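B., you asked whether I could sanity-check this one before it goes into the benchmark set. Here's the sequence:
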Amino acid sequence: MTVSTASPADGVRVVTVDHPPVNALPVRGWYELADAVRAAGRDPEARCVVLAAAGRGFNAGVDIKELQRDPGNAALIGVNRACAEAFEAVYACEVPVVAAVHGFCLGGGIGLAGNADAIVAGEDAVFGLPELDRGALGAATHLARLVPQHLMRTLYYTARTVTAAELLAHGSVWRVVPVDELLDSAVELAAEIARKDGGLLRLAKAALNGIDPVDVRRSYRFEQGFTFEASLSGTAGRVRDTFGKEA
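And here's what the prediction gave me:
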């Protein structure tokens, strides 16, 4: 697991996750990501943060194998708290966050992208919540920030994905670009934001969070309660072991 931070432009910090093979993060990884995003936002010289990923896709959610190795609920409790920390770090980052999304953005990836202030996506990017196929519930809070309510519900119930081009049509993606131009395009947007006054940007971020119609932190934690209920009932483990292929 590697989380690195770079400074490719004045006022811009790029936080990159690299956890092969698919950036499905263990508990420790979510906390490391949260710490890196918070540190980048607290940097007095930073005025915008880009959240990016190396490898085959942006984020494939949680490490299912970590949950399967735990006969109890400690891993589930741990990952619930860790995901909440990472999502909160992106949402509450002191400066705007631009998500640079390529490949798959699934499960926890939706939590990260949905909490960002802006999204630049590669042409290959797909977004979705396969939670019902993984024995989990959650991040509908964040998917609802990307698509209209009825589409969110349909995607959630079916575990289908939508493309970057479809999200562009809904206005939740800023630009869709060739994959080899993704990071440069995200940094370009971040640099444009970073040219604004740093103090005003931090005030603007706090103000915009303050007028959100949904408390995303409380809403997500509410969802997670049902994931835990599914685990206690045995439903989650049965579905998780078959990836939703049988009841």
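One thing to flag: Strands lie at 2-9, 12-18, 48-53, 97-101, 104-106, 118-122, 126-128, 161-163, 175-177. Otherwise nothing jumped out at me.
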